[in-house]
Amino acid sequence: MAAEEAPAAALTYIPEVVLKKRKNNEQWAIRRKLQAHERAKRLKSESLFIKKPEQFIREYRDKELDLIQMKTRGKLRRRAPMTAESKLLFVIRIGGKNDMHPKTRKLLYSLRLRKIFSGVFVKASEGMMEILQKVEPYVTYGYPNVKSVKDLIYKKGVVKIDKERVPLTDNNIVEQELGQHNIICIEDIVNEIANVGKHFKAVTSFLCPFTLNNPEKALRGKKKRFEDGGDSGNREDRINELISKMN
Prior knowledge:
Elements: H1 16-47, H2 53-75, E1 88-93, H3 102-110, E2 118-123, H4 126-134, E3 139-142, H5 146-156, E4 158-161, E5 164-167, H6 171-178, H7 186-194, H8 200-206, E6 210-211, E7 233-234, H9 239-246
Parallel strand pairs: 3-7
Antiparallel strand pairs: 1-2, 1-3, 2-6, 4-5
């Protein structure tokens, strides 16, 4: 009698959520590799470019003018919003490169806005409004609603673990880093930021600045204040329209 065939090995079941996270991480790794390649090409091309003396003079004048204007803006006293609905601000860097004075750049860096089209959540206060006034030509800001907060964190949320940027898709990472504050999942992060809770600073420090998309026609390319027909400054609740186009 022929020997009986051995039963086929059972297939290993992998949950759908694990497969989705694995796919997201793979796509993220590919995107980061392409970005690094493009950055290397750009730096190489910039290193071959020789500036003319006129360009150095123009950039120096622009920086000195920016310093004078920054000091003038710093003397303005616009009242900071203190209502319960406007304790939270979302700040987006929309410009600034060679025309900025080093002191202006230092203020932008203190807000963690090192790149154009990067954004951060901050708490509205007198001190914060003074900083925003000084860097106003290079930023726009306003009062994000809960939907904008949630969309930004779920779509663009990134954290730094062991010096590596990691997409915020795992509640285990949240619990490990913020569990001591009773923040154990992504939804807790959304609530803490939207309500400007007592652990707001810890949560926003845990998040990397948001890397936003170029909004194309949503910005006019003007350094005028938003209320004067430009791009910069306080958009109040209309910041939500810009967030939706850049998210």
